[in-house]
From TrEMBL:
UniProt domain NADP-dependent oxidoreductase: residue ranges: 30-265
Protein name: Aldo/keto reductase
PROSITE patterns, per database record: ALDOKETO_REDUCTASE_1, ALDOKETO_REDUCTASE_2, ALDOKETO_REDUCTASE_3
InterPro entries (alphabetical): AKR, AKR5G, Aldo/ket_reductase_CS, NAD(P)_OxRdtase_dom_sf, NADP_OxRdtase_dom
Any Pfam family hit: Aldo_ket_red
Domain of life (superkingdom): Bacteria
Length: 279
């Protein structure tokens, strides 16, 4: 891990960048397009969106602008989207995937995820993802917000094992048991809300660690994720912050500092519990 283009090899051999740009709650419009364009121009190669975000069209425009400005090709990028709960099912998931491709104006996705583990629906949706994968329309398939028991239930019926599990993870929610299960199972963990939506950036001990390394608190937290071999997709629309979030490859946290951040865990969520959601 010495550059923003550094990637992890997923279980099927596909390369996925360690750092990407998230666009949750970024509405369609110039700000979104500029954020995606800027990220690609500054070296980001991974962009994460979802159908429920309602911004795939703008993300697609930002991708095209970014490719042109950076002088790169589509195959140099890693684009993720997700199927929403209302579309879970075999045929409906296939249709949702095509709708996402159309909005993004892409011929394929690099990663497609089931957004939430809606009971009695996600297994049929997974069959659709397996079909898309076999057809070559997506390079890798995975899930989001799946607990261990969701993964176990899915894998009992799955032909292809999920390659990624994107979950809420930050210093106050390190999800150690889930992390260990995925590690053993060959499923790559990816963190959404890796900075806890900014709520811990002023925490005193993190600020002290950041001061020691002459880095920002956000950079310390992102580096903690990376040294734990967790993919991160921090969200920002500000170009300076987008650049700052990627500047995490020129230092390494000591084992003492890593352990200190590990011990901050409180099993505290800023998002819904995947065992208790109503959408």
């Amino acid at each position: 891990m010495n550059h923003i283009n550094t990637a992890v090899t997923l279980s099927n051999g596909v390369q996925m960048p360690w750092v990407g740009l998230g666009v949750f709650k970024v509405e369609e419009g110039a700000e979104l397009i500029h954020a995606v364009t800027s990220a690609i121009r500054h070296g980001y190669r991974s962009i994460d969106t979802a159908s429920i975000y309602g911004n795939e069209q703008g993300v697609g425009e930002g991708i095209r602008n970014g490719m042109q400005q950076a002088g790169i090709k589509r195959e140099d990028l890693f684009i993720t989207s997700k199927v929403w709960n209302d579309d879970l099912g075999y045929e409906s998931t296939l249709k949702a995937f095509e709708n996402s491709l159309e909005k993004l104006q892409l011929e394929y996705l690099d990663l497609y995820l089931i957004h939430w583990p809606v009971e009695d629906k996600f297994k049929e949706a997974w069959k659709a993802l397996e079909t898309l994968y076999k057809q070559g329309k997506v390079k890798a398939i995975g899930v989001s917000n799946f607990h261990i028991h969701h993964l176990e239930e899915l894998m009992m019926h799955a032909e292809i094992k999920p390659m990624v599990n994107q979950v809420e993870r930050h210093p106050r929610l390190n999800q150690q048991k889930l992390y260990d299960f995925c590690k053993t199972s060959g499923i790559q963990i990816e963190a959404w809300s890796p900075l806890m939506q900014g709520e811990i950036l002023q925490q005193e001990d993190l600020v002290d660690i950041a001061r020691k390394y002459k880095k920002t608190t956000a950079q310390i937290i992102l580096r903690w994720h990376l040294q734990n071999e967790v993919i991160v997709i921090p969200k920002s629309t500000k170009e300076t912050r987008i650049v700052e979030n990627s500047d995490v490859f020129d230092f390494e946290l000591t084992s003492t500092d890593m352990d200190h951040i590990d011990r901050m865990n409180q099993n505290f969520r800023v998002g819904p519990d995947p065992d208790n959601f109503d959408f």
